[in-house]
Amino acid sequence: MENKIEISDLKVYYGDKQALNGISLDVYPNEILGIIGPAQSGKTTLLKVINRTLEFTQDFSVEGSVKLDGVDIYSIGDVHALRRRIGMVLPLPVGLPLSIYDNVAFAPRTSGLRDKAELDVIVERCLTQAALWDEVKDRLDSLGTKLSGGQQQRLTIARALSHQPEILCLDEFSIAVDPITTMRIEDVLKDLKNEMTILLVTNLVQQAKRLANRTAFMLNGDLIEIDDTDVIFSENPAEKSTYDYVNGNFG
Amino acid sequence: MNRSELIIQIIALATLTIACVLVWVVTTEVFHVEGEILSVPMGIDSGSDLIDRLYSMIPLLCVAMLLSIAFAFYIEEWLSETTWYYRIINQQISILANIPSLIYGILVICIFLFQVKEFLNFTLVLAIVFLVVPVIIRTTQSAIRGVDLSVREAAYALGANRWQVITDHVFPRAFPKITGGIFTVISRVLAIAALLIIVCELRTSIIQDVSSYEISSDVFVLISLALLSCVLSSFLQINRNS
Ligand SMILES: Nc1ncnc2c1ncn2[C@@H]1O[C@H](COP(=O)(O)OP(=O)(O)OP(=O)(O)O)[C@@H](O)[C@H]1O
Ligand SMILES: [Mg+2]
Known about the structure:
The complex is a heterodimer of chains A (251) and B (242). Chain A has a domain at 88-164. Chain A has 10 helices and 10 strands. Chain A has helices at 43-50, 79-84, 100-110, 116-129, 133-136, 149-161, 179-192, 205-211, 229-232, 240-246, and strands at 5-14, 17-27, 32-36, 60-68, 71-72, 86-89, 167-171, 197-201, 214-219, 222-228. In chain A, strands 6-7-8-3-9-10 form a 6-stranded mixed sheet, with helices on both faces. In chain A, strands 2-1-4-5 form a 4-stranded antiparallel sheet, with helices on one face. The model of chain A has no long low-confidence stretch (mean pLDDT 90). Chain B has 242 residues and is mainly alpha-helical. Chain B has a single domain (3-35, 45-237), classed as MetI-like fold (Orthogonal Bundle), CATH 1.10.3720. Chain B has helices spanning 3-31, 47-55, 58-77, 84-98, 101-113, 117-145, 149-157, 162-205, 217-241. The longest helix of chain B is centred in the C-terminal third of the chain and has 44 residues, at 162-205. Chain B is globular and about 70 Å long. Mean pLDDT of chain B is 77; it is low at 35-41. Classes of the chains: A alpha/beta (251), B mainly alpha (242). Chains A and B meet through helix 2, helix 3 and helix 6 of A and helix 7 and helix 8 of B. The complex binds adenosine-5'-triphosphate and magnesium ion (MG). The site of adenosine-5'-triphosphate (ATP) has 13 residues of chain A, from strand 2 and helix 1.
């Protein structure tokens, strides 16, 4: 089985400050890879490298290689097409100043889809997958930014699914979402795994334990350990710091 | 204020000054302003003549506004903020936008008092351009900067290209502020127009004595001081922003 993503010796600098110190890891197709680690460990940075949104930061530099289906992402000419292959959900929802419908239809439209009937199907499918359809189906024309925080986050997830990405990156998606909705979204992720590869950055270690096939533990820009989730959460992971972090007696 | 900032400001100011001197030299040379004052018959005899003339400037005004908005989008979206030419352009616009509109008014009035026919249209055009362009560029720039970075990033992350991000997200969000800038400019232009009409009618009523009229040197001192302090104020504002 071929790897979906191959990262080798990835180093990222913000100005003089190094945020990733040479990370190598592979992501398998159709797995949920949990990424855990305390604040500042470089989890968000890792995701931003993969969809190349790091490029909006001033003064960054990247060394090493990231390959998507065997192709180096920095050699891909059409960065917009690359980004459409990857869905990204940020910790706090960013409502585009558009209606609920247009939020979800935005990405398909940017890639040229104009047919209303097809868009309707996509909008309904994505909102359903994000566990939001029932709540908003009667007011698709109202502004997305007027939804509650948790609803907006689910709208962001629907939006991230709208261009049928091969990879879905979630960065601490549940910060602004209540526990019950979080559970519903987690169920959705378990199903989505059949269609795509999921990178789940989370600061709730139990969430990684519940969902992830494998889990990576990061600390201060280093990848400490990556292994099957069962191993990471067992009594004897390879590194002691992993055990300490997972069991909450860290630092 | 660090050293490179200072150098940028000096370059911006120097190029502006050179440009003004050039305009001055060219106009006085080409139009022979000095010595011919009042020797040419006036183009405008009444307030309503002037209003006609001003109406004919409306298309120019609109074109100037549209180009300014386009230019503001260009420098904000395509030029990187760290390049030296972006910083020089930015500085120049800020100096120009800070010049009180009254100064243009006084300039135009002087030319009206000593009406020189060919000079008249040229001055009106110049005044409109200087009155409109910097202010529109400035307000459009700040409107564009006011759009959340997170909105842009979210749109880019969905695979939108620069044009789609600008037309679908940045422009609609910046639009209200841009219209605000347009109204500021319209008010400046209307105020100057009103002033011109008053001067024009006054002039026709005292026309006989105008030939002996000389502008007091105090006026020039005051205008110079006004320009100086507005340059200072734009320097200070730029530094606070960055
Ligand atoms: N735009 C930036 N400019 C400069 N430094 C940055 C920037 N973004 C992140 N960093 C630095 O890079 C390091 C890694 O940050 P990153 O956001 O990737 O961590 P994280 O693991 O996502 O943390 P958290 O759990 O708090 O979200 C941190 O030390 C941070 O200060
Ligand atoms: Mg983070």
